[in-house]
Amino acid sequence: MVTVLVFGRTLQDAVGENEFSIATSEATTVRKLIEANAGQLGPLLRFIASREALITVNKKVGTEDTVVKNGDTVKVSFQSHNAYDGTRDIPM
Questions:
Q1: What single-letter DSSP state applies at residue 70?
Q2: Which of 13, 25, 40, 71 is the one with CA 20 to 30 A from 91?
Q3: Which of 61, 46, 44, 53 is nearest to 77 (CA)?
């Protein structure tokens, strides 16, 4: 089982819950895990694509390409556009 924790009212409203237990038989990526469980987690993809979600896997910052396996905990936290992630120009 992979535990997926969702933080932030915006993300929780999008998926309807704040904690999911997802069964997986082999290692996969965060994106593939979400896509395979699109009925529950699918709305998270748009927040990840727009860089409004911060992903951590086992307390380490990750990405949608980070590998997860049984026993891992994935946290997806909302971050607004006002947060500066260091990869875009600072809005004026």
A1: T
A2: 13
A3: 53
- pTM of the complete model beyond 0.90: no
The tokens for 17 are: 């819950």
4 burial level (CB within 10 Å; 0-12, 13-18, 19+): buried
Three state DSSP letters for 44-68: HHHHHHCCCEEEEECCEEECCCCEE
Q: Strand, coil or helix: what is 9?
A: helix
Percentage of residues of the chain with pLDDT beyond 70: 87
Q: Which residue has the tokens 């990869």?
A: 87
C-alpha distances in angstroms, 64 versus 8, 34, 48, 76, 88?
18, 9, 8, 10, 19
